[in-house]
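Whether sequence alone determines local backbone shape is best considered at the level of individual chains. The sequence in question and its structure tokens are set out directly beneath this paragraph.

***
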Amino acid sequence: METKRLEYFLRIVDCGSISRAAQDLGLAQPALSQQLAILEGELKVQLMYRSRRGTTPTAAGWQLYQRARIFLRQLEQTRASLLEADDQLSGSVSIGLPTSTATIISVPLMQRVLARYPQIRLHVIEGYSSMLTEMTQSGRLDVAVLFFNSQMSGLSIEPLWEEELLLVCPPDTQQTGPVPLRMLADVPLLLPSKANSSRRSLDAALAANRMGVVPIAEIDSIVTLKKAVQDRFAYTLLPWSAISEEVESGRLTACAIEGAPVSRTVSLCFPDAVHRTPAHEKIAEIIREQSDIAFESRRLVGMRRIAA
């Protein structure tokens, strides 16, 4: 079985269509269809359902998709390790960063990797922690920054810092000092859905204090949450890393929550399903460095470094 056919198969599943996959790969559609048919013949099983709307994997196809992705990643890591044994760090490294944390880490990380290890190809994926957690556990990400303070199935976790969620207020709000947790019940509040780590942290703090709040809407977009507050439509809760530019420029204001702070732990995470290569270790080292630099050079409200 040729690994190239497995790569073609993964692209078909990701695209949901043979024609779109062929376009992405620069192949003729009949040629790609033939490669899929050969793979199905080699495995003696149907891998895809075909319809006018596109393609979807069968149960066997989905199983192959998950295993082939891990296999191809491990194969690439083996190639990279052989080069690293010859003192040439190379290969691709997939990194997951939550949107709020990316403002501190992403650009400096890329700059440092390019300067120190130009043969390493970075693939940075930004998104919500719930999505990144699933991708890391399944081995689709090599390294991720996630919100955990204890062991999680399929992950190795290294805490980096603790961050409090702040009440984010419209720009002309007079209140700038700390506010009690109970105030959240008195303002129109926009929150992310319950799967989001910041929402889970808030719900835990409210439950511990036998309180509850009902948001006027749930929005899983930091950009939209901030825009709604800027437009004086509502309030929300976000960490300083997500709002520092807007607060410092006067477009938003933020208040700490006193008495019962809402906080979460930011951790460096590795998937147990993926062999950790020297390239992965170097990327993790740079993430640690950049978090240290951020604490030393920036005003980080409500954020506390965790000692190693």
